[in-house]
Amino acid sequence: MSKFKRIGVLTSGGDAPGMNAAIRAITRKAIDEGVEVMGIIGGYSGLINENLIPLSSGAVSNIITHGGTMLYSNRCPEFKTEEGMQKAIATCKKYDIDAIVAIGGDGTFRGATDLTLRGIPAIGVTGTIDNDITATDYTVGFDTAMNTIIETVDRLRDTCESHARCNIVEVMGRDCGQLALMTGIASGAVAVCIPEIPFDEDKAIDELIKARAYGKRGMIIVISEGVFVKDENGNDVRYGEVLKNKIQEKTGIETKFARLAHVVRGGSPTLRDRLTATRMGVRAVELLLDGKSNMVVVEEDGRITSMDILFALTADRMYKGKLKDGDLDKFSEAEIKEMEAICDKRRKEIESLYEMACEICR
Ligand code: ADP
Ligand code: F6P
Questions:
Q1: What are phi and psi of 151, to 5 degrees?
Q2: What torsion, rounded to 10 degrees, do the Cα atoms 260, 265, 271, 273 define?
Q3: Distance in Å, CA 12 to ligand 1 centroid
Q4: What ligand 1 atom has the least distance to the C-alpha of 105?
Q5: Burial bucket for residue 262 (CB in 10 Å: 0-12, 13-18, 19+)
Q6: Which ligand 2 atom minimizes the distance to the CA of 129?
Q7: What residues does each domain of the chain span?
Q8: What is the DSSP string of 22-69?
């Protein structure tokens, strides 16, 4: 017999295609195990404002093909305050919610930890197009976003080719260049620009001039939204539009700029996202039923596994160079080594893909 009678599920932070598939899997697996499910509307704000709906197997029917999230999503600063947190806990108690599955990114997992620390066991499931959670190889939504990007870039290529233009395409990803790097390679871009690796502007411009000289007409450069430069007043500005102007000035090649922005967050999830979301959702319920909490479901070398949220978030800060004093104190030497290995693996993967992009993108 499960010690849980009822669990809650929510989606939080930026939405991602595949979140619905995860909601469906969590709901159906829990019901199958005799556990009721409440859907929490609008992320953590739904917990604060008692905005909940019961989820039956039928309620999640037909959502696996839909982008967005049927539970809606939100960024909820109030949840970060003790007062907001206490309201959320009170809602869990009032509605007999014994545990929470939170689908989202690293911010969402921080919220899940806070709930666990206050007595509501919580499990995280990844859902973000950015693939920016260091401890997992994959986050739900990434594949759909990549496919949307390459489809859109393919269209831009057609018109670039007709008009002999260059097009800079800026894609989301926050501080993580994976979306730009992988789609740049897959869409045959002449150059890729990501926050993790310094961009050799002179070389890129040189390559464009050479390419044009041997007859190349259409040219695409994929750039991540996380690449910034300083303007004349010392303010950070996104590099994409700056690069567009420089290319035009230095090469004479007519150059356009396109920011794909939120277009990339929508759409029906790919097979990869539907399947991964389903596997991760089922695993989240299994973990709760096994008495585990404060864990995040991750993908490691193709396997669906799980790890402690605090470990995952600390590894993430380590990778992003954001460790604060004392962050590592709670971990053993072996655990710190494990975190370093995770960071190293991610760094090497990005470096080797970027190296390959430099070799073949022209
Ligand atoms: P993501 O989950 O995609 O990283 P956010 O960083 O916006 O997105 O986080 C989503 C939500 O998670 C926030 O709006 C907030 O409600 C909650 N959250 C984020 N950081 C914390 C934190 N440090 N403590 C508690 N809750 C948090
Ligand atoms: O984290 C997902 C993401 O789409 C990022 O790629 C992007 O920087 C951010 O969210 C945009 O957030 P918002 O939807 O609040 O504009």
A1: -65, -40
A2: 130
A3: 7
A4: 2
A5: exposed
A6: 2
A7: 6-141+269-331, 144-266+349-360
A8: HHHHHHHHHHHTT-EEEEETTTHHHHHTT-EEEE-TGGGTT-TT-SS-
- pLDDT tens-place values along the chain, 362 residues long: 567 899 999 999 999 999 999 999 999 999 999 999 999 999 999 999 999 999 999 999 999 999 999 999 989 999 999 999 999 999 999 999 999 999 999 999 999 999 999 999 999 999 999 999 999 999 999 999 999 999 999 999 999 999 999 999 999 999 999 999 999 999 999 999 999 999 999 999 999 999 999 999 999 999 999 999 999 999 999 999 999 999 999 999 999 999 999 999 999 999 999 999 999 999 999 999 999 999 999 999 999 999 999 999 999 999 999 999 999 999 999 999 999 999 999 999 999 999 999 998 87
- At 134, list the tokens: 């260091």
β partners of residue 104? 126
- Measured from CB, residues less than 6 Å from any atom of ligand 2 are 14, 105, 128-130, 172-174, 225, 265
Q: What is the identity of the amino acid at 328?
A: L
Q: Which of 15, 130, 137, 316 is catalytic?
A: 130
Q: Provide CATH code, domain 6-141+269-331.
A: 3.40.50.450
Ligand of minimum distance to the alpha carbon of 122:
1
Closest ligand 2 atom to 262 CA: 4
Q: What is the pTM of this model?
A: 0.97
Active site residue 231: no
Can you read off the two tokens belonging to residue 65?
């093909």
Matching residue, tokens 């709670």: 330
Q: Establish whether domains 6-141+269-331 and 144-266+349-360 are of one fold.
A: yes
The closest residue, in CA terms, to atom 1 on ligand 2 is 14
Instruction: Let me know: does 54 contact 38? Beta carbons within 8 Å.
Output: yes
